[in-house]
Amino acid sequence: MIITQRLGSQMSPSYGLPRFGDHCTLNQTKCEIDTRFSFCAVACLALLKRLDVINVDKAVEYVVSCKNFDGGFGVRPGSESHSGQIYCCVGMLAITNSLHHVDPDLLGWWLCERQLPSGGLNGRPEKLPDVCYSWWVLASLKVMGRIHWIDKSKLERFILACQDEETGGIADRPGDIVDPFHTLFGVAGLSLLGSYKNQLKAVNPVFCMPEETLTRLGVRTQLL
Ligand SMILES: [Zn+2]
Fold it and tell me: What are the Prenyltransferase alpha-alpha toroid domain coordinates in residue numbering (predicted)?
C-alpha cells in the first residue's frame, strides 16, 4: 500500500511521469520526464490494480501531447518519433483504454517502414536493424491490429540469424555477442510472429508477459 501511494505521488505538474525517485511535485526542473516513465508507471499500477492513485486522464493528455505528424511518439512534446518510445506510448494508451488517440494506419505505415532488406527492423529511419526492435515495432503493430503489414518470414529469418548456435542466446544483429536483453526480445518477437507455437507461449504485446499470467491476474489491455 505504501509503495503504490508513493508511485502515485510521483506525478509532475505537467502530468508527465518522471523517473521513480525524482521528486518534482513542486519543482519540475529537478526531475527527468520521459514517456517511458509514463508507460512504466501505468504498467506497474495496472498490475498492482492501483491506477486510481494517479490522474489517468491527465497522464494520457501528456502522452498524447508527445504525438507527432507521422503518427509516432517521442520522449517529450516535439521530440522525434522513435520505435521504443512508440511502444511505450501505445502500451500506455492500451492500458488506460485510450487507443482512440492513435492513428493505426498512419503509425502502422511508419512502423512498417522500419523493416529493412535483411528482414530486421530499426528504430528510426537510417538506423541499423536490431533484434530488440522486433519487439518494440512488432508489439506496437500487434496492439494496433497491423502485425500482418510486415514480412513475417523475413523477420523470423533475421531473428534466427542473430542466434548463437552454441549458447542459444540472441544478439542485436548477426555476428554480435549475445545478451539476455536481446534474447528476451528475440524470443518474445518470435512468439508475436506465431513461430514455434508448440514451444513458445503466447506473449502479451503490452506487458511482454505470458498471456496466461495476465489472465490469471485478471489484467486486461485494450487492443485494436
Ligand atoms: Zn537492441
Answer: 28-209
- The answer to whether the pTM exceeds 0.85 is yes
Domains of the chain: 35-217 (1.50.10.20)
DSSP state of 39: H
Please give the Cα distance from 72 to 93 (Å, whole number). Answer: 13
Q: Distance from the CA of 177 to the center of ligand 1, in angstroms?
A: 12
Q: Residue 192 Cα, ligand 1 centroid: separation in angstroms?
A: 17
Task: Kindly provide the b/e burial profile for residues 2-16, where b requires at least 16 CB atoms within 10 angstroms of the residue's own CB.
Answer: eebeebbebbbebbb
User: If 0-12 CB within 10 Å is exposed, 13-18 middle and 19+ buried, where does residue 222 land?
Assistant: middle
Q: How many residues does the chain have?
A: 224
Query: Three-state SS for 34?
Result: coil
Cell triple for 178:
549475445
Using the mean position of ligand 1's atoms as its centre, give its distance from the Cα of residue 193 in Å.
18
Q: Do the beta carbons of residue 182 and residue 193 sit within 8 Å? A: no
Q: Is residue 224 a contact partner of residue 143, using CB atoms and an 8 Å limit? A: yes
Query: For residue range 132-189, what is the model confidence (pLDDT) as tens digits?
Result: 998 999 999 999 999 999 999 999 999 999 999 999 999 999 999 999 999 999 999 9
- 107 contact partners, CB below 8 Å, separation of at least 6: 70, 71, 72, 86, 90, 140, 144
- Site of grid cell 530499426: 122
For ligand 1, the distance from its centroid to the CA atom of residue 184, given in whole angstroms, is 11
CA angle 34/150/133 to nearest 5° reads: 35
